[in-house]
Design goal:
Length: about 270
């Protein structure tokens, strides 16, 4: 086990927030300005694992903590990637795939991308030029990705870390892959988790990252009540809420949440044992 850093680089729902065109939905609180979904894991030896590659990926790689002043050089920028874990094929989780080409350019090598076969098939159809012969693609300055299909319940290894992936229901929107890395669990875009997974995979979790769209019920995402029920079941030491809608105003939730449940914001950094 080693200490890694988890950076929650994108904590907003699919359209990002706050939405424009309706001043009543706006917020002047920087914590309510959320990029689309994503996270970065940084290892003790400089290793980098990405979870998802959404439409704001370039900004997440360039300024993961969202603290660079405009036009300043971003000294915290991400310059390598040892693997990408894709939770599912929705636009807000993978349509930034093309932005990985700059990391290929900096590294001079291909990047392994892990996804469930059904999601991988979509990505291969959508971005065929990213998965062609790595050398030829790199010469053309296109992304050079190596597709690695993963099965539910299968364990695999990235940077010496044992990763478990498992099925989660996204309601009528299909399926998502959840990930467990060490004592960290990353569960986004879900409506239900099979009982067996709760018992056999999501036990002894220290840090839980979980989908929580808003108070109101939604067909494909957990609302607060549903997320709270799952958190009480999983019993992590600390839990971070992500994938929030514009209805969630950060400041209003600070008094609502218990000490071990944190309302995330873009750039939040957490130490995890992996
Ligand atoms: Zn999403
Ligand atoms: Zn989704």
């Amino acid at each position: 086990m080693a200490e890694w850093e988890l950076i929650l680089t994108g904590t907003g729902t699919s359209h990002g927030n706050p939405p424009w065109g309706n001043p009543n939905m706006w917020s002047n609180d920087p914590r309510d300005h959320r990029r689309r979904s994503g996270a970065i894991l940084k290892g003790p030896g400089g290793e980098v694992i990405l979870i998802d590659a959404g439409p704001d990926l370039m900004h997440q790689l360039r300024d993961p903590y969202k603290r660079t002043k405009m036009y300043e050089y971003p000294t915290d920028c991400i310059c390598r990637c040892d693997g990408v874990l894709i939770t599912h094929d929705h636009a807000d989780h993978c349509h930034g795939l093309n932005d990985l080409r700059h990391l290929n350019r900096l590294m001079g090598s291909e990047i392994p991308l892990y996804a469930h076969e059904s999601h991988l098939n979509t990505l291969l159809q959508m971005f065929p030029y990213c998965f062609r012969d790595a050398h030829a693609v790199y010469e053309m300055s296109s992304p050079a990705l190596r597709a690695i299909p993963i099965k539910d319940g299968e364990n695999f290894n990235i940077c010496g870390i044992d990763v478990q992936s498992f099925y989660m229901s996204h309601g009528p929107a299909g399926r998502t892959s959840g990930f467990r890395l060490g004592k960290l669990a990353y569960l986004t875009d879900l409506k239900e988790i099979p009982e067996e997974t709760l018992e056999t995979v999501l036990n002894d979790i220290e840090v839980l990252v979980i989908d929580m769209l808003r108070d109101e019920t939604h067909e494909t995402h957990l609302n607060w009540e549903e997320a709270e029920t799952l958190i009480q079941r999983i019993k992590p030491l600390t839990c971070y809420l992500v994938h929030m809608g514009y209805e969630v105003c950060h400041s209003e939730w600070l008094d609502r949440l218990p000490d071990n449940i944190i309302m995330s914001y873009d750039g939040l950094s957490v130490q995890v044992q992996l």
